[in-house]
Amino acid sequence: MTKKNKVKKVSSIIKDIINQDQLINGINNVKVINSCKKIVGKNIINYIEKIKFKNGDLYIKLKSAPLRNELNFKKEILLENINTDLKEKIVEKIIFN
Hints:
CATH class: Alpha Beta
CATH architecture: 2-Layer Sandwich
Mean pLDDT: 91
Number of domains: 1
Radius of gyration: 19 Å
Oligomer: single chain
Number of strands: 3
Order of helices and strands: HHHEEHHE
Structural class: alpha+beta
């Protein structure tokens, strides 16, 4: 009895691993959070307690109510800038807490 070993390129194996649903979700989570931090800048990052990305929704918990109010007015611009930075529409909605 002989075994037939299929030879695969390393790049093909890596793509197969990355394309697993759980790994894609984790990678998107990191990409979205890093993009959000890059877009809002260092000053606003100081007022962020927590950032969470789940099912297309980006949750941002802020320490400052006036800042939360101000960012709510700029929510659509922020959403567009994050998706532009990511080069795909991953974030569907931003929710400030």
